[in-house]
Amino acid sequence: MKTENGNEYKVVYVGKFSGDVSHEVDNGGLKAGDKVHCRIDWDRRYKLMRMHTAAHVFSRVIFDETGAVTSGNQLDLDKSRIDFTLENLDKGKIKEWEKKANEIIAGGRNLKISFYPREEAFKIPDFIRTSKLLVPEDLKTIRIVEIEGLDQQACGGTHLKNISEIGKIEVLKVENKGKNNRRIYFRLIQ
């Protein structure tokens, strides 16, 4: 982000507070009403879009195989993690799930974004596969991300147009994070 007088700032966090979108920057000096020019760091954004979309595919595979839902995640540029509500995990199955996810990705499927009235969205089977309901009670319209023929999820993130853009998923590590919680780290390979 750049101000009219040439000062540059890097956006380090974006959030929504009381209905307003707020951008947190790396340095002080901005004040309400300042005019700025913003530019998206496309390389970073695209890496995160690939990682985010990969998480949807991998989560769907694990849900289909085990019924486990997502209890947490953290998406990053180089590696990401997804936590699942799994009591027991056969580590031998991980490579099978990785292979299945990569086969689905290689097949390529388009993504579509739709908006549904809340009542209609809640009629979609498994459209929320998290251990906690993350859709605010007062949200009247819900954004649904659909991976053609595979998955429909409530999601506000950025995604690819086609899952073939992901590349491949590689599982790096699996951790036990408690009685019913397993953490799977993965990265993407071009």
Give a verbal description of the structure.
By secondary structure, the protein is α+β, with helices and mostly antiparallel strands. The chain has 2 domains: 2-39, no CATH class; 43-189, Threonyl-tRNA Synthetase, Chain A, domain 2, CATH 3.30.980.10. The protein is 24% helix and 33% strand. The protein is globular. The protein starts with a strand and ends with a strand.
Short description:
This protein has helices at 42-66, 91-107, 118-121; strands spanning 2-3, 11-17, 20-25, 36-37, 70-74, 80-84, 111-117, 141-147, 151-154, 168-176, 182-189.
Number of helices: 3
By secondary-structure content and strand pairing, the structural class works out as alpha+beta
Largest sheet data = 4 strands, antiparallel
Number of domains: 2
Attribute tags:
190 residues, alpha+beta, Threonyl-tRNA Synthetase, Chain A, domain 2, four-stranded antiparallel beta sheet, three-stranded antiparallel beta sheet
Show the helix and strand layout:
Layout lengths: L1 E2 L7 E7 L2 E6 L10 E2 L4 H25 L3 E5 L5 E5 L6 H17 L3 E7 H4 L19 E7 L3 E4 L13 E9 L5 E8 L1
Helix pairs in contact: 1-2
